[in-house]
Each structure stands twice: as structure tokens, then as C-alpha cells.
Write a structure and sequence with these properties.
Number of strands: 6
Radius of gyration: 16 Å
Structural class: alpha/beta
Oligomer: single chain
CATH class: Alpha Beta
Helix content: 25-40%
Number of helices: 10
Strand content: 15-25%
Length: 210
């Protein structure tokens, strides 16, 4: 079963396109930013049957946090346009707006420090939205961005993730969820995460858990 976790301010409907193309059993959960994370995780049904976790944006952070407690039978995590190091825009917006997401996405926030301290040994595929152009606000006026978060933040996977691969796709933060390129990236990972991340890995390395 694949667990799908949507981003901040979105809903499980964000996965409607992907669900048309993925053959595995899918489970989605809905939450609101500001909800207690333990309460969010309690919404996951049959956790021992989850074999892959896919999170978009803030959902990638939640997926990593859930897996940090116990990977159970999960074989891999796919993070899509996930702001591992937050966004400078959040620091500005947090001055004016009380929405919890701006506090969490502020670089150096308590949540981001927690996420970046996680040690995770299962394979992680980090898919970065990297369009040809973003917008000045999302990039803090000076950095490449996907229209919502800096591309550099999405690339900066926590150091405690032991087995990772980053793939860039030329779409914005939102439109990437409606592309067949993303479907193909997910399929390759779910079919064989080790081979997808390490295509030239020797058999003996696979056998000892790379």
C-alpha cells in the first residue's frame, strides 16, 4: 500500500491524477496545518501494510517525521517539492500572518530542526520541481524557485538520510502533481527502489543492505 500525504493548504484531491496511473492500493489522509502531528499520524489506517510513503511539499516533511518513529514495513519514501530547509518567504510572511505553516517553514524553525536531525536508512527519492522560471517572492527576490519554495531548499535533503537520489523535473510546485513524468519517476522507484537509486550497484552490496 502507498500512503499519500498532501501539502499545506491542499487536500487529498491533489493526488487525483496520480491515482489514475498507480496500480497499487493507495491511502490518503487529510489534515490542516496546525493540527498536532501525532493526531495526523493516527489517521493512517493499517500502518503495518504501508510499503511506500509519498509526500508533496509539507507532506514530505510529515512523511519523514512519521518514518523517523518506526519504518515498519516501508521500503522507501518519495518526497516531491519538499522544503527541507524552509523558505525565506516564510520568515517575511510570519511577521504579518498567523498561519502555522509560515512558522514551520521559517528557516531554522523547530520543525525543520527536528526533520534535519532524523536518521533514515530506507531509500529516499527526492523529486525537485525546477521550472525555467519561478517568481521573485518565492525565491526571496534572488534565488531559483518553483513558484512556491526555493529550489535549493528542495535539493537540500537532511544529512541523516543515508540513501538518497535527487531528480529534477521542469515543472512548478503545483503542476508537477499533474504530470506523467512524475508518474514514471514513482513507478521506477516502487518497482525497485534500490535499483532506481543505485542502478550500477553490485549484487553483493544489495545483499548486505548497501
Amino acid at each position: 500500500m502507498i500512503l499519500l500525504i498532501h501539502g499545506a493548504g491542499a487536500s487529498s484531491n491533489n493526488f487525483n491524477y496520480l491515482s489514475l496511473w498507480l496500480d497499487q492500493e493507495l491511502q490518503t489522509i487529510d489534515y490542516k496545518v496546525g493540527d498536532n502531528h501525532e493526531t495526523i499520524f493516527k489517521k493512517i489506517q493499517r500502518p503495518n501494510e504501508v510499503t511506500y510513503v509519498i509526500g508533496h511539499s509539507y507532506g514530505g516533511l510529515l512523511g519523514a517525521e512519521w518514518l523517523s518513529k518506526d519504518v515498519r514495513n516501508v521500503k522507501g519514501l518519495i518526497a516531491i517539492a519538499t522544503p527541507w530547509q524552509g523558505s525565506p518567504t516564510a520568515r517575511i510572511l510570519n511577521w504579518f500572518l498567523s498561519d502555522e505553516v509560515w512558522k514551520d517553514m521559517n528557516p531554522g524553525s523547530e520543525l525543520l530542526r527536528k526533520i534535519n536531525a532524523i536518521n533514515l536508512t530506507i531509500p529516499v527519492k527526492n523529486i525537485v520541481a525546477a521550472p525555467k522560471s519561478g517568481n521573485g517572492l518565492a525565491g526571496g527576490g534572488k534565488s531559483a524557485n518553483d513558484g512556491t519554495i526555493p529550489v535549493a531548499s528542495a535539493k537540500a535533503v537532511p544529512q541523516g538520510f543515508k540513501s538518497t537520489k535527487t531528480v529534477e523535473l521542469p515543472y512548478t510546485h503545483s503542476e508537477i502533481m499533474q504530470t506523467f513524468d512524475l508518474v514514471e519517476q514513482i513507478r521506477m522507484f516502487v518497482d525497485n527502489p534500490v535499483q532506481d537509486l543505485f542502478p550500477v550497484l553490485r549484487l553483493e552490496e544489495v545483499n548486505r543492505g548497501f
